[in-house]
Design brief:
Length: 228
């Protein structure tokens, strides 16, 4: 008993035993200290941001050449989208509109469509795999923010991809594109081909990363992954 008391005084049992909170809907909820709560700004190394922009330019140049030559078409993206049944009908329809807008060079429309659906896509995919997508803030139960959801992608599926997506779309010290778009801070000059095609590519990268088996069974293991 004395040994137990010593252990308890040094390390409370509450910090050893797992604590799982269940929402009224039956979802498991992460508590304070989980990745879903770690959305405070972090310092992103300048070298990483430089590398990210460099690799983004290489990828965009490759995608531009492939689409201009007809090697990648609108139909190819629609075909990829049809290989998952984990998205809601609304997400599928909005992503169809996103694909069409990119290939019809309606970049501003495409960017706002894609940014507005990214959280829903990530949340739905994670929930389908059994990951928690809700968080506790005091006594309130709420859906985790996109940054927290991408941390779950980073921790559970791909560290490189999850980190890249956070830097690109949600981190204040990164490009923070999604949050700036949703708060009306995106500049019109940023609504061009590069932003739109990368957004489309990144959303499909999320699909392949989280729902990988649906794609690898059909197409094999993808050879491109950011940071590799």
């Amino acid at each position: 008993w004395e040994t137990i008391e010593e252990i308890e005084s040094d390390t409370p049992l509450s910090s050893i035993l797992p604590r799982v909170t269940i929402s009224p809907e039956g979802d498991s909820i992460e508590t304070e200290g989980s990745p879903l709560h770690q959305e405070d700004a972090e310092r992103i190394p300048s070298s990483y941001k430089m590398q990210m922009r460099h690799l983004n330019r290489i990828l965009v140049n490759a995608l531009y050449g492939l689409t201009e030559n007809g090697d990648i078409t609108e139909t190819n993206f629609i075909c990829l989208l049809s290989h998952t049944d984990r998205l809601s009908p609304d997400d599928q329809l909005f992503l169809m509109d996103l694909i069409t807008a990119v290939f019809e060079e309606r970049y501003s429309e495409a960017i706002h469509l894609g940014m507005s659906r990214m959280k829903s896509v990530v949340s739905t995919l994670l929930e389908e795999t059994g990951a928690s997508v809700t968080s506790v803030d005091g006594t309130d139960i709420q859906q985790a923010g996109l940054g927290g959801l991408l941390r779950t992608v980073e921790d559970n599926y791909s560290e490189d991809t999850g980190y890249y997506l956070r830097v690109k779309y949600t981190e204040k010290s990164g490009e923070n594109l999604r949050n700036r778009t949703n708060h009306g801070q995106l500049l019109y000059d940023e609504c061009h081909y590069m932003t739109a095609i990368l957004l489309l590519f990144d959303i499909f990268q999320i699909l392949v990363t989280v729902s990988g088996s649906e794609y690898t069974e059909q197409f094999g293991v993808p050879k491109y992954r950011f940071g590799s």
